[in-house]
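In the design runs reported in the main text, the only information available to the sequence generator was the tokenized backbone. The following block is the verbatim input for one such run; it is reproduced so that readers can re-run the procedure and compare outputs position by position.
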């Protein structure tokens, strides 16, 4: 179990380049199951979740031909096994993204229910309801979703009670090979959904409306192998923007898409942090003193829940009191207890956290619980006085490629110990 040892109190300076978006590459990897041939994907981040998804695709019969640098080639002509096993799915909820493609490709799927994780129950009822509407027979057998669609899937008009990102992705992929037209109402509008729709479109699916809350898909009889370059990770970029702000540093974040970060840019400016967007870069200048702000997490284009923990870390050092409302997940304040051990003053009440800014945090031994919570502990440790030791960093390796190398490059004192 690796640990990260951080000596806080150093301002971050210099530049950092952002890696490909984890939550864009995972659905695209699942979408390769819809094709039968050599799929070539570049801009792929070397993060744990990508390797987990590659292993899962291998279980299903796909073959990884090469993964050099940021480009991988995966041959899906041999996909023949409909079963995604519990031991893989339980480590990564995004494995659920193979459900729609397997039903569309093989006419059957057996995918373990992901089970809960630190941030919530993570149900799949909306995925299942949508696939049933498209003609799949689905039953739950010993913790597995057993789906069959012998006569193939049929397009339908589907309404999502709640905006679900992977639910939208799953049904869009299933619809891409279904018979007829599918309409997805109250669909997710995340950039990762737009990207997936565009990639499927280039493979032969007819999709329109992506980016709005109504997506219309005309099913095709077959799709061509996927070729694409994954765009930069907006959550990694946002995490480093907050790293610059919390250390009072001056950082140029390159290879990023400022348009994907509008909500964070506005909130940081509201706090008095200087943010200067370039074409594909962002300059962030921290201040020694900055104001508290209030945030409410929402589906895109609202404030992203995946940046909530990192923003809370920043607000522990703001002047005044911040109110943070987590509207997307039911239990996403796990980082608060650890931040309080560093001297933060946080009052939790259900979906609301009230953060009273303090003058300083002090380093401490810390425990990561989930991917973005561990990122928030790294940020707090960078600003804290003294040394912090963060254990269970496998959480952070799921979604950040070489985080300590990138931070060292900006002047942080951080090292990984086995
Ligand atoms: C995706 O998860 C992301 N993961 C998450 O990022 C992100 O936090 C989340 O979207 C919200 O933006 C990937 O894209 C791989 P949801 P997802 O379905 O799709 C409820 C990270 O840190 N819901 O949009 O699983 C659900 O309980 C991860 O990179 C149902 O009730 O999230 C939640 O409260 C963490 N029934 C809300 O919807 C369903 O069938 C939004 O969840 C599905 C979801």
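Verbatim output:
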């Amino acid at each position: 179990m690796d640990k990260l040892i951080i000596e806080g109190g150093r301002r971050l300076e210099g530049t950092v380049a952002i890696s490909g978006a984890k939550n864009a590459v995972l659905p695209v990897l699942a979408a390769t199951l819809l094709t039968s041939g050599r799929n070539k994907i570049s801009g792929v981040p070397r993060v744990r979740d990508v390797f987990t998804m590659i292993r899962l695709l291998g279980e299903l019969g796909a073959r990884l031909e090469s993964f050099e640098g940021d480009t991988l080639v995966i041959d899906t002509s041999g996909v023949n096994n409909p079963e995604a096993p519990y031991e893989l799915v339980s480590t990564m909820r995004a494995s659920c993204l193979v459900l729609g493609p397997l039903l569309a490709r093989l006419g059957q799927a057996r995918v373990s229910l992901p089970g809960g994780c630190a941030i919530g129950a993570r149900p799949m009822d909306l995925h299942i309801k949508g696939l049933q509407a498209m003609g799949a027979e689905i039953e739950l057998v010993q913790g597995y979703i057993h789906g069959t669609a012998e006569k193939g899937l049929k397009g339908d008009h589907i309404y999502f009670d709640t905006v679900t990102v992977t639910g939208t992705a799953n049904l869009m992929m299933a619809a891409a090979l279904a018979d007829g037209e599918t309409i997805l109402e109250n669909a997710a509008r995340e950039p990762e959904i737009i990207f997936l729709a565009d990639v499927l479109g280039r493979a032969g699916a007819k999709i329109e409306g992506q980016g709005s809350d109504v997506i219309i898909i005309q099913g095709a009889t077959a799709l061509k192998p996927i070729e694409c370059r994954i765009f930069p990770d907006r959550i990694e970029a946002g995490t480093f923007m907050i790293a610059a702000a919390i250390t009072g540093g001056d950082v140029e974040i390159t290879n990023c898409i400022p348009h994907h970060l509008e909500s964070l840019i506005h909130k940081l400016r509201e706090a008095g942090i200087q943010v200067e967007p370039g074409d594909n870069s962002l300059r962030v200048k921290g201040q020694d003193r900055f104001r508290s702000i209030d945030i409410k997490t929402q589906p895109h284009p609202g404030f992203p829940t995946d940046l909530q923990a990192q923003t809370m870390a920043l607000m522990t050092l703001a002047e005044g009191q911040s109110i943070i409302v987590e509207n997307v997940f039911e239990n996403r304040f796990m980082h608060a207890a650890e931040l309080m051990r560093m001297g933060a003053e946080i009052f939790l009440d259900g979906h609301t956290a009230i953060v009273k800014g303090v003058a300083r945090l002090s380093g401490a031994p810390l425990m990561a619980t989930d991917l973005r919570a561990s990122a928030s502990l790294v940020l707090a440790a960078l600003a804290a006085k003294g040394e912090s030791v963060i254990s269970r960093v496998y959480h952070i390796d799921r979604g950040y490629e070489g985080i300590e190398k990138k931070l060292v490059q900006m002047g942080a004192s951080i090292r990984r110990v086995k």
